[in-house]
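Practice problem 4.
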């Protein structure tokens, strides 16, 4: 390996002296999370095809964990939080009370023992001859695309870890050089020189802007940070945030834009409307005041030509009880289209009214064209935890396929007023299971059948969906569960076929509410509580498939193909192909191949983009709960790269720190 000349800069950043890589003819980049700002995650690379993909082997592996990193107490999924001092050797801090509260809300306790590794959900970028990614060890690294050799490393100077899903690239303006920008779990917005890793000159204070401004904190000390990368449009860095799910009052989930040169705030969009703003009348009384949640913790996209940014927003806090926020609660669980230059709302579409299911929108709204009735419609595809796909005209926000408001069950929780209807698209059909009954209980093995039947019968569990509210004292299992359906990974779009390709899974959630006279909330979760599965072997209690890869023909509104995604290794070989829960998403290439990790079976797979046939699979050191990326290096070789550490709220074992690039043999 080429020897690097390292220099200590400003006491915080180690920079290599030979960071001089440049784009060469034939090189193909991946310059933003979604490949481009449309979120299509489509690459023009076509050297790897269905005919040769089975020959892929690891070309190089980069280890994120520093050699001197201390073991960490691995939380029940999710990235390390802000607030704690860094441990020796760059190890991430232990989970905070907010992190533990979220994990508890997901029912994924008990915690795992201390681990050598931290979780990452990152999709690296490759632009202008360097790969960029954050690590859970409080570093940003730049790597050579052809070897994985570190070119520079930036060590965080604040307690928070970088956003767990990646970073963003600003190409500069001719006078100011290109920058890598990202948020942190303690709400710092950081800009680095892309070539050197030095803090960006003239941006905030030493390259850092404090996002915890008084107006965003709502007069509270609420939780605020970033878990996903921002998105760049022109010279603006547009940010969402991660906020608390409870208590209900705290930091606002507002969307903001910052000057890429200076870090100065340019505009703010109020995700919970203030008095006189559109949507304010959807909150009863003063229930909007100081309300937390309704935040953009997922991934945004941009129509570059039209200057429109598409923001998926989460549910209001608390996302299991809305008796203190009666109304439809705009812009909760909505996609909002904003003028990227000004932040002005252009249109919105609420996917879930008065969300009490934690059905956040978080997956990137994917931009594509729909050819229908002799017209080409600029469209945006919306998928989320509720397992439904809405295809909207991305200029007007009107549905491309009709949507019907249908009655849904009432809540029996005192004080709750569940919204009487919810929107259902006429096409495409649901992408995941949206209901279940006792007849749907799994019968793969006698032991598993007996466990699930006893779980349901002994606890008088009410199975149902869609939109079955959490019961008052009686345990309910609604499909989809609180993590999907579809989660933040979202899908990819193949323009050659018109297929939107997305991974879905079916994992119900057991939960009920009982009065909580002494607590900060009027209700609390009751037992049994957590995933609707047999913990030993992590076997969901309804019939498989438990996970799929689905291709939607957006021009017809139909399912073009489905393929079972994932295996359960603990089952007998003949019945292992059950599909598995997944976090992360797919990409698709001009070579006709879909690549995806995501599943909790530690596999990385390739599928035929036209037929859905599984073409190749390899076992990783840990589950790759991240979206892969692909690029062509300067020597003309195509690489496919995946981060695999385990973790997330699927609570996969944290057993690796690997960033692996696969390629065909030379």
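Answer key:
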């Amino acid at each position: 390996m080429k020897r690097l000349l390292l220099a200590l800069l400003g006491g915080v950043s180690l920079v290599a002296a030979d960071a001089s890589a440049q784009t060469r003819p034939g090189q193909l980049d991946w310059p933003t999370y979604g490949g481009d700002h449309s979120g299509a995650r489509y690459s023009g690379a076509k050297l790897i095809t269905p005919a040769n993909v089975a020959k892929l082997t690891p070309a190089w592996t980069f280890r994120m964990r520093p050699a001197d990193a201390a073991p960490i107490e691995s939380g029940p999924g999710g990235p390390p939080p802000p607030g704690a001092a860094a441990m020796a050797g760059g190890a991430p801090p232990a989970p905070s009370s907010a992190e533990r509260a979220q994990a508890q809300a997901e029912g994924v306790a008990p915690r795992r023992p201390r681990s050598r590794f931290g979780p990452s959900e990152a999709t690296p970028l490759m632009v202008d001859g360097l790969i960029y990614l954050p690590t859970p060890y409080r570093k940003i690294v730049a790597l050579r695309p052809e070897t994985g050799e570190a070119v520079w490393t930036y060590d965080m100077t604040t307690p928070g870890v970088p956003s767990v899903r990646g970073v963003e690239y600003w190409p500069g303006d001719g006078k100011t050089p290109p920058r890598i920008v990202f948020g942190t779990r303690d709400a710092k917005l950081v800009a680095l020189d892309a070539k050197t890793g030095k803090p960006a000159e003239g941006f905030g204070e030493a390259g850092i802007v404090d996002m915890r401004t008084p107006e965003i904190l709502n007069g509270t000390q609420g939780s605020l940070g970033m878990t996903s990368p921002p998105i760049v449009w022109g010279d603006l860095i547009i940010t969402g945030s991660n906020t608390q799910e409870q208590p209900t009052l705290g930091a606002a989930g507002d969307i903001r834009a910052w000057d890429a040169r200076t870090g100065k705030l340019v505009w703010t969009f109020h995700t919970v409307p203030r008095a006189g703003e559109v949507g304010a009348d959807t909150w009863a009384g003063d229930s909007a005041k100081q309300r937390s949640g309704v935040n953009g913790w997922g991934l945004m996209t941009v129509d570059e030509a039209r200057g429109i940014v598409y923001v998926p927003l989460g549910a209001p806090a608390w996302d299991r009880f809305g008796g203190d926020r009666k109304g439809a609660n705009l812009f909760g669980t909505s996609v909002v289209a904003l003028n990227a230059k000004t932040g002005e709302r252009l249109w919105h579409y609420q996917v879930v009214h008065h969300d009490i299911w934690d059905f956040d929108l978080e997956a990137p709204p994917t931009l594509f064209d729909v050819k229908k009735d002799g017209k080409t419609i600029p469209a945006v595809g919306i998928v989320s935890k509720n397992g439904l796909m809405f295809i909207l005209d991305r200029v007007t926000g009107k549905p491309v396929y009709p949507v019907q408001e249908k009655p849904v069950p009432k809540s029996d929780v005192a004080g709750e007023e569940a919204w009487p209807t919810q929107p259902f698209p006429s096409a495409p059909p649901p992408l995941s299971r949206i209901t279940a009954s006792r007849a749907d209980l799994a019968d793969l093995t006698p032991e598993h059948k007996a466990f699930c039947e006893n779980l349901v019968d002994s606890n008088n569990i009410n199975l149902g969906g869609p939109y079955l509210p959490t019961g008052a004292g009686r345990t309910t299992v609604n499909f989809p569960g609180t993590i999907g359906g579809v989660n933040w990974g979202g899908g990819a779009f193949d323009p050659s076929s018109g297929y939107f390709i997305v991974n879905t899974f079916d994992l119900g959630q057991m939960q009920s509410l009982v009065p909580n006279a002494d607590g900060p909330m009027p209700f609390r979760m009751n037992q049994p509580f957590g995933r609707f599965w047999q913990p030993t072997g992590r076997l969901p209690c309804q019939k498989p498939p438990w996970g799929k890869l689905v291709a939607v023909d957006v021009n017809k509104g139909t399912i073009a193909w489905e393929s079972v995604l994932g295996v359960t290794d603990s089952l007998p070989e003949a019945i292992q192909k059950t599909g598995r829960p997944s976090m992360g998403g797919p990409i698709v290439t001009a070579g006709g191949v879909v690549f995806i990790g995501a599943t909790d079976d530690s596999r990385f797979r390739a599928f035929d983009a036209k037929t859905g046939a599984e073409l190749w699979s390899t076992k990783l050191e840990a589950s790759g709960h991240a979206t892969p990326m692909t690029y062509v290096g300067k020597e003309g070789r195509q690489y496919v790269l995946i981060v695999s550490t385990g973790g997330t709220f699927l609570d996969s074992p944290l057993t690796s720190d690997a960033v692996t690039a696969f390629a065909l043999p030379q």
